[in-house]
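Weekly puzzle thread! Below is a chain. First person to post its structure in token form gets bragging rights.
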Amino acid sequence: MSDPIILIPARMASVRLPNKPLADIGGEPMIVHVWRRAMEAGLGPVVVATDEPDIIKAIEKVGGIAVLTRSDHPSGSDRIFEAIERVDPEGHHDVIVNVQGDLPTIDPKAIAASVLPLANPEVDLATLVVEITRDEEKTNPNVVKPILTPLGDRHYRALYFTRVTAPSGEGPLYHHIGLYAWRRRALARFVSLQPSTLEKRERLEQLRALEAGMRIDAIEVDDVPLGVDTPEDLERARLVLANRPKMH
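Winning reply:
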């Protein structure tokens, strides 16, 4: 990992929370809070990739970098690939960390931890997991469960991801956090592939990578960041960030 960059895809088309990236939290748009958490991770430059000029203005207002991308991308992975080709056509950045634009409370240390598995050249991309402690999450299809084999302290290899309760038998279950650290060449290959059979069946984009033979490793972190999808989530995020110590 010689030169990571963090890319944050952000788009307005949320049904449950219209104009979500610009939702006000403590006097600033949500996307600015996500940008601040990414900056605090200290990994490298942070760029917001969006199809909305108002998001670009919000990021540039606080001194950040944003790039305008096409509006017809099927996924955030496609959007960040267009963005990296625009902002770094020479290919200086060999690791791309994709932080979702609706995670304003994410721990910057978790973002930084995501790149650790890429020290192994056999790993194509890395992600984050949290042990499930609430029984209702074990059976909730909206909580994606990675099936993992342990490699070391809080470090795993991901064999599969599913919405059902798995694996069976005694032992912990894990909650997948949709943050990815990609090798640039792996991301380029991924976006060139058609959606795969299991990806479409489970509605989980990362299965395309596994079906193509890519290796995904995972780092265990302490808590699940609050994803903001509804007005109720937004109120929770406002409370969390109102009580967050100010960074200097």
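Puzzle host: Confirmed. Bonus trivia for everyone else. The radius of gyration is 17 Å.
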